[in-house]
Amino acid sequence: MRSATGKMAGPEKPPILLAIMGLRVRRSMRIPSMVLIRLMPSAPASSQALAMETISVTLGESLMMTGFFVYILDVHRDAVADSEGNNYKLLCAEEPGAAQLEFVIGSSGGGLEHPDWRENLKLACAVQETLYAKYPTLMRPVTVRNSRYNQQVTTGSLLIEVGTAGNSLDEALAAARLFAAGFAETVLA
Known about the structure:
By secondary structure, the protein is an alpha/beta fold. It contains four helices and eight strands, in the order βββααβββαββα. The chain is globular, with a radius of gyration of 16 Å. The protein starts with a strand and ends with a helix.
């Protein structure tokens, strides 16, 4: 297993110091059109379609019972590995026991209707900016993709990758606690 504390490392590029990357992301948060974008499939199309169909039913049932959503947090664990299948372990430099996090924002770029995707992007950027103030290396750059990930259901929908397959459960839970505090601080402000 490979480890990258305070760096973003992956099979497609050499490690990049997140402090440097964070400055770029922080500046881009004020102008969402400049958010860093990576396009890559997160799962085979068949698995992705089945997951989206399942969660769509769940979201529909929840919406029928409550009549509204304020926020939807879709929590995943990322798969960051090299070409030989070695998993990367991504850690926050300020809190070495915490995995790194990443927002994945769906858009209408794939041709399906998702008119309010920029609202979800604004929320992700606001939360990321709050977290950046205390933990500059906790969040990886925001990723915007050409799929919707059921985020078209309502504004306030976020997909968050908590660590990678290389991180331990304790590292993922530590990151989730830091995220929860920053998320609450952002939305309750």
